[in-house]
User: Which sequence fits this backbone?
């Protein structure tokens, strides 16, 4: 059960990154500073996806042994 929740939160980070990329695209011409902020959020969300995924797999491998 806990493993499914961790996997769900991984994909929430992907959704947040996609939404942030959309906001970057929509704000690029009108408000460049806001677009930069959302670009930063997108990069952090993608990093968090891979970070959480790495540690979830590490925990799975540890519990399988």
Assistant:
């Amino acid at each position: 059960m806990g493993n499914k929740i961790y996997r769900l939160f991984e994909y929430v980070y992907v959704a947040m990154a996609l939404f942030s990329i959309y906001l970057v695209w929509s704000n690029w011409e009108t408000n460049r500073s806001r677009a930069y902020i959302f670009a930063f959020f997108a990069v952090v969300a993608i990093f968090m996806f891979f970070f959480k995924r790495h540690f979830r797999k590490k925990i799975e491998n540890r519990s399988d042994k």
